Amino acid sequence: MRRISIVVLIVILALTSQAFAMTGRDVMDKAKDIINDGDSMHALMGMDLIDDNGEVQARKIEVWGITYNQAKDLSKVVMEFRTPASIKGTRFLQVENDGRDDDKWIYLPSLGRVRRISSSEGSKSFVGSDFTYDDMSSREVDEDSHKILREEKLGDYDCYVVESIPKNSKDAQYAKRISWVTKEHFVPVRVEMYSKKTGNLQKLLTVKHNIKKIDGIWTVFDALMKDMESGHSTKLYIIRGKSGAPYIEYNKKISPARFTKRFLKTGR
């Protein structure tokens, strides 16, 4: 599974140090290609909406993901909001496609029907968060031109700093992205997204430096997306139980029926 969501989880297989000079394209290829979260993933996550005064609206989400095409490494992901009552029962399905945009559908209990998310809605907020629908999608490496700006240490990690500029600006949400990608894991632990309108920093994604292995798979537990214009931010994190263990598991059997529009509407 190449990518479950830029906000939900970034799961990477650690590599040995490279014995050759890396290009920007090499770094971003590895950041995409070495993701290895098994045949399936199941997690319980928190989504905190944080306004510019620090007020928090907490949500709880259950997430399932499967690799449905092993040869092409294509995935399906479904999310179900558990709490609070105002959003409970909202479900979202994303299907990764080969050579075209991901398919996305959402079920809102207030409407009582499943609605397809069109490509023209990509820049809209995902259920009131600071992530857009396009942020939730995988982006092909070939869609951008990549250049290493420098190498530097960010917190605990030595990183490549890579600038990615869309080859076709009409098909991109941002003017450019600058990513701090760890040399150890090839995880982007900081991503700056720049506005097409102003050229200024529009949003900032940061990953907490607590990457650890779960079931032998490198796992990121916390990510924060901040809107630099409004001051609003959204935190996504794996919920931990009383024992302190995170609610996430890999390679467990999940019924394919869960990844359907019928499940979105019925919850079963």
From TrEMBL:
Keyword Transferase: no
Alphabetically ordered keywords of this record: Lipoprotein, Signal
InterPro entries the record matches: TP_0789-like
Entry annotated with the keyword Cytoplasm: no
Domain named Uncharacterized protein TP-0789: residues: 75-266
The protein's name in its UniProt record: Outer membrane lipoprotein-sorting protein
Signal peptide: 1-21
Pfam families: LolA_like (PF17131)
